[in-house]
Amino acid sequence: VGKAKECSSVGQAGADHGELVETVVNELLAAVSAKEGITFPEGAMSRLAAYTDVVADFPCGVKEFEWRNEYFYKLGDDACPTH
Q1: pLDDT tens digits, residue range 12-52?
Q2: Which listed site, 1, 58, 72, 73, has its alpha carbon 20 to 30 Å from 82?
Q3: Number of Cβ within a 10 Å radius of residue 28
Q4: How far is the C-alpha of 28 from the C-alpha of 19, rounded, in Å?
Q5: Contact 1/45 with Cβ under 8 angstroms?
Q6: H-helix or E-strand containing 46?
C-alpha cells in the first residue's frame, strides 16, 4: 500500500491509508487460509498494526520480491482483488 500510494514510510502508509491496509491484510489472510487450510488467530490485524508502529520510520518499497512477496502475488487477483 505504501509503495502504491507513494508514502515515504510505513508509518505514513498506516496513518494515511489505514482502511486500505486493513482491506489488503484481510484479503491476504483469507486467501492464505483458503490455500493452506489454516486459520489465523483473532487479532492478526491488530498485531500487524502494532508492528507497524515499531517500524514506522522504515521506507516503503518492494524488495527481494521472489522470497518476500511473490507468494502473495501468486495468490491471484480473484483471491486478492485489492492487493
Answers
A1: 999 999 999 999 999 999 999 999 999 999 999 999 999 98
A2: 58
A3: 19
A4: 14
A5: no
A6: helix 44-54
> In this structure, which amino acid lies at residue 60?
C
Query: Amino acid identity of 75?
Result: L
Task: Name 24's Cβ contacts closer than 8 Å, sequence gap at least 6.
Answer: 1, 80, 82, 83
Grid cell in block for residue 72: 502473495
Angle between helices 18-36 and 44-54 (to 10 degrees): 130
pTM of the model: 0.85
Q: Which three cell numbers stand for residue 31?
A: 486467501
